[in-house]
Amino acid sequence: MSCYKFNQVRIETVQGDITTQSVDAIVNAANTSLLGGGGVDGAIHRAAGPELLAECRTLRGCVTGEAKLTRGYLLPAQYVIHAVGPIYGQDDAPDLLASAYHNSLQIAINHKLRSIAFPAISTGIYGYPINEAARISLRAVISCLHQSHTIELVRFVLFTSEALAIFNEGFAAVARNYDDITTCL
């Protein structure tokens, strides 16, 4: 686990299962249909129960780089924010990935949520290199947190120890470029 403080917000990286996180909202690395899939998306749908799929059907999908909110149902998290990341190789993939993180956080801020957990969006079947994704995600989160007065915790939940190590390296590299990011005690 790594921990940073920025603008009174705790930013953590942990290894674990995002479906077990006791936070206000977890972020789903969703596809554009929002109707479930493999990886994180499938795990969240299975853990939340069939009501999540029923609510997602009413949302009529989501475009890449955007995000939508549903209830969490059987999850410990009250809400699920469904963010659609890009497929690696698209011309605007870095901007779309940053947008997925930014829009997810904006939803959390708009709903006055205090804690949010993210997976490594687009790094599974969408093929985004995890080292690039880590740096893009932290920069996007920092950019969005400048305007937040409610978010207290942003947690990145990585499924494997290898992914956690790569995210930690990426975060350390980005954090060195900001004077107002400190490590937690």
Structure description:
- With 185 residues, the chain is an alpha/beta fold.
- The chain has a single domain, classed as 3-Layer(aba) Sandwich (Leucine Aminopeptidase, subunit E, domain 1).
- It is 37% helix and 23% strand.
- It contains 5 helices and 8 strands; from the N terminus they run βββααββαβαβαβ.
- Strands 4-5-3-6-7-2-1-8 form an 8-stranded mixed β-sheet, sandwiched between helices.
- Strand 6, helix 4 and strand 7 form a beta-alpha-beta unit.
- Helix 3 crosses helix 4.
Layout of secondary structure:
Elements lengths: L1 E5 L2 E7 L9 E6 L8 H10 L1 H10 L7 E5 L7 E6 L8 H18 L4 E4 L11 H16 L7 E6 L2 H15 L5 E3 L2
Parallel strand pairs: 2-7, 3-5, 3-6, 6-7
Antiparallel strand pairs: 1-2, 1-8, 4-5
Helix pairs in contact: 3-4, 4-5
In a few lines, what is going on in this structure?
With 185 residues, the chain is an alpha/beta fold. It has helices spanning 39-48, 50-59, 93-110, 130-145, 161-175, and strands spanning 2-6, 9-15, 25-30, 67-71, 79-84, 115-118, 153-158, 181-183. The chain is built from five helices and eight strands, in the order βββααββαβαβαβ.
Give structural attributes:
185 residues, 5 helices, 8-stranded mixed β-sheet
